[in-house]
Design a protein that fits this description.
Length: 200
């Protein structure tokens, strides 16, 4: 039951103004900017936006160079991870989330913006964060589909920003200075993953 009082009533003028805008030819409306709400940077991703309270708006790579991809494991299910990113009280996000069962990709933060995923501001400003559904101690979550789709995404990011496809530039969360995280953990197959990234 909704206990909040009803909001302000729409005036007749506001309703008519909205109707006139809806009837306006699309040619008269401004073009959507790249990275606009609802658009994705990676064509096969689904837009699942994080709360604007969980990342910093930016204009990367103009504002900050992007020179890293950081690999994470969610320690949550895919839907719970999306819900966490959509909760403004959590103060956390990543650019992408990969679902274990089929490798489905959700984009939660535009690449131009700074996701709060690394726990280190410098690394946040210069990286793209990719979360993978699962737990570090449950390797069954690291399916063929998850590895393959994640590697295609990482390869595309590396191509876009000129990031070398190596372990100095595609790193685990545990490699971020000052972190207390261990993901993606000892069960993540780095050799396999980097091979997939390099041949994607």
């Amino acid at each position: 039951m909704d206990t909040n009082p009803p909001g302000p009533q729409l005036s007749r003028r506001r309703i008519l103004r909205g109707a006139a805008l809806a009837a306006a030819p699309y040619a008269l409306l401004p073009a959507a900017r790249a990275g606009a709400e609802g658009t994705v940077d990676y064509p096969s991703a689904e837009w699942q936006p994080a709360s604007t309270g969980n990342y910093t708006s930016s204009d990367r790579p103009a504002a900050y160079d992007i020179d890293r991809v950081i690999i994470h494991v969610t320690q949550e299910t895919y839907p719970d991870t999306l819900a966490i990113f959509q909760n403004p009280q959590k103060k956390v996000s990543a650019h992408y989330v990969i679902r274990s069962a089929d490798g489905h990709v959700a984009q939660c933060v535009h690449e131009a913006d700074i996701a709060w995923h690394a726990g280190n501001w410098d690394y946040n400003t210069r990286s793209i964060g990719i979360e993978h559904e699962g737990w570090v101690d449950q390797p069954a979550y690291f399916t063929n589909a998850l590895y393959e789709q994640s590697a295609k995404l990482t390869a595309a990011i590396c191509a876009t920003y000129g990031i070398p496809k190596d372990r100095d530039h595609v790193i685990g969360h545990y490699q971020v200075p000052g972190t207390d995280h261990t993901d993606p953990g000892p069960n993540w197959d780095w050799v396999r993953y980097l091979n997939l990234v390099n041949f994607a």
